[in-house]
Design a protein that fits this description.
It is built from 11 helices and 13 strands. The chain is α+β, with helices and mostly antiparallel strands and 353 residues long. The strands form 2 sheets. Strands 1, 2, 3, 4, 5, 6, 7, 9 and 13 form a 9-stranded mixed beta sheet that branches. A 4-stranded antiparallel beta sheet has the order 10-11-8-12, covered by helices on one side. It binds 4-diphosphocytidyl-2-C-methyl-D-erythritol (CDM) and adenosine-5'-triphosphate.
Length: 353
């Protein structure tokens, strides 16, 4: 039972956070050198993991679809003095990291978590910083520069929804624009692939089939707008651990199923398959309860684990049905959101100025 005093304390904290949020975006992100961007989540309609390669990564054939659920990012770039960058490098503040080919790139990241999970990631560990550092090196940008980033997180971490990967791709899109490089430049795509298997997809967005380790675009499919409900227990699944568990009992997707998926021209015709799901369920048994709870309501054929978990998605008739299911799943103590499949990709929101 939450008493009134606690409720008031929470309201106070929320008011402070709201005031800080308003201040931050108003002072830093209006004006020249600033961009607002959309950073969508994804689901894998098909995830067919294959053999493990000598580098430890697995062959993967996947059909990914972007969701309307997205993080919002603001990116601001401006010249900096060498002193400012050098000072930041010695200060070791969690929200700041220094990189670039000559330790010349100062990146500050303000992470505002709206998922209720209290995600905290030091700037140096943030995939957004890794993306900026890697692109600055690939383009050999040596002038001192400050890049300020604000990430408003709506995508829960460790959900298999690709949130961090999407943020990294979105950062590449922002910097390509601010640094005057085409977003489809080979160096941008190569950096995306070097950051993680899921990053390249978000440069494409919509619905796409990828091969290699899941990082190589093979073709695009006509996207769908179907309503979706996402349900995630509090615990996450570590992607690397799920792959390790998969190797204990690798079960390939049946060739006929893979063939049918690869022949589908529309997202709507892709059968829902994920052969990483048993490994994730072995790591987190609550996933079985979530799957059964959703299957009882919408039919097992419409329910699938998102990538390596721990979110599960279900395709439903319309947004009202998704909202009702999200409400009911919330009452089970799970994080849940209604959303829909979408044609989104990591992209700049056009300015109204
Ligand atoms: C499960 C998926 O999300 C499905 O889209 C992806 O396969 C994983 O994509 P991701 O999170 O971007 O993965 P990465 O950050 O590149 O890799 C995390 C870890 O997953 C394992 N990994 C990932 C992709 C792959 N094809 N084989 C792997 O074995 C590796 O152990 C790696 O260390
Ligand atoms: N920008 C970021 N947003 C969220 N998490 C980040 C970010 N940068 C680094 N991370 C770290 O990465 C971890 C995994 O986050 P992410 O949401 O990408 O994983 P995921 O849901 O497993 O996605 P995927 O489907 O790509 O495997 C987080 O727990 C966090 O520590």
């Amino acid at each position: 039972m939450i008493d009134n005093a606690q409720r008031n304390r929470e309201a106070e904290v929320n008011l402070l956070a709201a005031a800080r949020d308003a201040q931050w975006s108003a002072t830093t992100f209006l004006g020249p050198g600033s961009l607002k961007l959309v950073s969508p989540a994804k689901v894998n309609l098909l995830l067919a993991i294959g053999a493990v390669r000598p580098d430890g990564y697995h062959e993967a054939r996947t059909i990914m679809h972007a969701l309307a659920l997205h993080d919002t990012m603001y990116v601001h770039a401006a010249p900096a003095s060498a002193d400012e960058v050098a000072r930041a490098a010695t200060e070791s503040r969690a929200e700041v990291a220094v990189g670039g080919p000559a330790e010349n790139l100062l990146v500050s990241i303000d992470l505002s978590d709206r998922t209720g999970q209290g995600l905290a990631v030091a700037a140096a560990d943030n995939l957004v910083f890794k993306a900026a550092d890697a692109l600055a090196r690939a383009l050999d940008r040596r002038d001192c520069e400050r890049v300020s980033v604000r990430i408003e997180k709506h995508i829960p971490a460790q959900g298999g929804l690709g949130g961090g990967s999407s943020n990294a791709a979105t950062m590449l899109v922002a910097l390509a624009q601010l640094w005057d490089v085409p977003a489809d430049d080979d160096r941008v795509v190569a950096v995306a692939r070097s950051l993680g298997a899921d990053v390249a997809f978000f440069l494409q967005g919509g619905c796409a089939q990828l091969g290699g380790t899941g990082d190589t675009l093979e073709r695009t499919l006509a996207p769908s707008r179907q309503a979706v409900v996402l349900v995630k227990p509090a615990d996450g699944v570590c992607t690397a651990e799920a792959y390790r568990r998969f190797d204990e009992r690798p079960t390939p997707v049946q060739p006929a199923v893979l063939e049918a998926a690869c022949a589908a021209a529309d997202a709507a015709d892709v059968p829902l398959v994920n052969n990483l799901a048993p490994a994730a369920e072995a790591l987190l048994s609550e996933l079985v309860a979530v799957r059964q709870w959703l299957a009882d309501r919408v039919g097992a054929q419409n329910v699938l684990l998102c990538g390596s978990g721990s979110a599960t998605f279900a395709l439903v008739d319309d947004y009202d049905a998704a909202s009702a299911l999200a409400l009911a799943a919330g009452k089970q103590g799970w994080w849940a959101r209604p959303t829909n499949l979408s044609g989104l990709r990591a992209a700049i929101v056009p300015s109204r100025r």
